[in-house]
Amino acid sequence: MTVIKLRPYRREDAENLVRYANNPGVTRGVRDSFPSPYTSADAQVWIAQCLEEPAASRQLNRAITLADELIGGIGVIPNGDVFRYSAEVGYWLGEPFWGQGYASDALRQITALAFAQTDLHRLYAGVFAFNQASMRVLEKAGYHREAIHQSAVYKEGQFWDEHLFVKFRG
């Protein structure tokens, strides 16, 4: 039985969103566009954006929940033009919940949802070279390493390789 569940964000998620996202351990593994420090205003803006997504959207943003309380976030962001059947998957999990299989479970769930509700053919995630735990999450969820983009990421004052993981429909 699945312990964690994915659901749309709610306004009342703001407190937990700030509690778990405002953590250097979390922000280290995500893009610099993820706010740090993560404030209540950031949470309100993010939740409002998610609530405004049209029902027919191919973009999927979900709260990762345990006992219906937000513990992280996960999303699928479709590409355009000739890449329109591909989408990037991104996720983060509050530090108290690391190492319990929740991120892999959430990734399996959002992958199934994306392939069931959209016409996407390919999902991918880019992982910074220092984030071995995230690479394990992807592998446990059935993704495989497709490429390594050398020195593609600039984070924490230095260049890092980006490891690209993919999963195809079917």
UniProtKB/TrEMBL annotation:
Q: Name one GO molecular function term.
A: acyltransferase activity, transferring groups other than amino-acyl groups
PROSITE patterns on file: GNAT (PS51186)
Q: What's a Pfam family this protein contains? A: Acetyltransf_3
Keywords, in A-Z order: Acyltransferase, Transferase
Q: Where is the N-acetyltransferase domain?
A: 4-170
Q: Which family does it belong to?
A: Belongs to the acetyltransferase family. RimJ subfamily.
Tell me the protein's name: RimJ/RimL family protein N-acetyltransferase
